[in-house]
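Bench notes, afternoon.
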Amino acid sequence: MTDYIKTIWPYVMNSWRPALEILILAVLIYYAFRFLRGTRGWPVVIGFVVVLVVLFAVTAVLKLQVLRWLLTTFSAFFAVAVLIIFQPELRRMLAELGNLPLFATAHEQRESIEVIIQTVERLAEVKIGALIAIEQSIQLFEAVESGVKVDCEATPEMLETIFFPNNAIHDGGVIIHGDRIAYAACIFPLTQRQDLNKSLGTRHRAAIGLSEETDAVIAVVSEETGMVSHAYKGQLVRGVTLEELRSFLTSVLLQPAKTHGAIEWLRARMGERPKPGPAVVTKSEPRPAAKQTGQ
């Protein structure tokens, strides 16, 4: 047995590096495809890969030396072309890696929760519509590209001002990052689900759509009824009280020993999605959020 180990040991020592390189490349390619899947650049990825595979296969089978030489010579230019074509996706991926909220404090999250509760209570009383997204581990670049950069401290007064009907940026959603309002007047992606009630408004469909594509937590106030709702992981819960909203936000944002950063980001990038379920859950009839007593 010892002689056998001594015999194969040199082969093991010489082959572990190539095996490690293959493993690293496989993982990188796998996660790159996972990341790009479903984005606007995904059809271009498929077309680009298909063309390259076909060209290399044809040159190998037919032994087209000139074409093979050209493909090999211009491989560096292909890499530059990939960087140019997929620049938005690559920029978004690198930005997400560089902005993992590993150090977000519980104090900031608690302050943001109370700001949202107070804002929702005030807006629901006077039936002013609102759409507020709390950013977590996935950066909301697709949404903020159409928004107005605000970058100010998140306070109920500022949020009320933004959503006031006569304000120039009251349409669209607000993105809260940490304890600050990052963007306003953002256009969130609408859900493509066909099983929704036709009476569901654009604001609520946008909340579901954003929660389907990201791990953001969205609070919604209906302009017609003053009803309060929240959306998360593709599900909208309507007709919640302020206490129910506070409990939900606390359970999602302040779970004990929760690692919002790398683990949540990897789960999202791996394509992990919640099990299919009802898109809308109505806890009560349309009504404004109940005021809290004894606060």
